[in-house]
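Archive maintenance. Older records in this collection stored only the sequence; we are now back-filling the structure field for every entry so that each record is complete. The fields below show one back-filled record exactly as it appears after the update. Entries are processed alphabetically, and SH3 domain-containing protein is next in the queue.

ARCHIVE ENTRY
Title: SH3 domain-containing protein
Organism field: Ruegeria sp. PrR005
Length field: 217
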Amino acid sequence: MKLGLICALLLGATPALAGRQSFPPQDEAARDPSLVTFRDELRAAVARRDTDALTAAACPDLMLSDGGIGGPEELRQFLTLEQGEPAADVEARWQALVRTLAAPGYFDDDGEFWMPFHWRIHLPARIEPAWSYFTNGENVNLRAAPDREAPVVTRVSFEVVLAAEPASENDYRAVILTDGTQGYLHRDYLVQMSGYRAAFAVSPDGTWQLCTFTSGR
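Back-filled structure field:
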């Protein structure tokens, strides 16, 4: 079940329109030991950059991208270096898979297991996911200026925040909390709400499979 986010901030709005909420991640994988085993094996395959093992563990109709062919073959292409493509681009895709599978996850109402945990937070329709971020940390300093020596306005723990300006290469991003408080958070603690997520599902023969790895909302 999605968690409802009581958030009424519109982009560019500064008044306090809602209270702050914290969503501490909880990994529910331990509810099914067979899932834990599958996830551990998949993580190990990713660490080895073992494309064959990954495609063998994928659903026949694995969802990877809108308009793609789907399934194990698209996953193989996604993780394989194409002629003329910078190696760093493929490594970035592998790293996205590493981070996603390392994140805590939850079971949805259909029994599928989704990662990361914050994907279960439901954003109101008026909130643009591309401008929404999950603060992946506890007591993260919200500073008054984009500098690690700037005064601390407040501390943020596992909250959804809105970007107050377009993304840049700066270490700090201007954000708005759901109560209207403004400040700067270090980019290392910000995870885009429309970023990568993955889902495992049980196949007809009772084994777990990787059935979703995609981004966007």
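Update note: Residues 4-17 have pLDDT under 50 and may be disordered. Residues 29-103 form one domain.
Entry marked complete.
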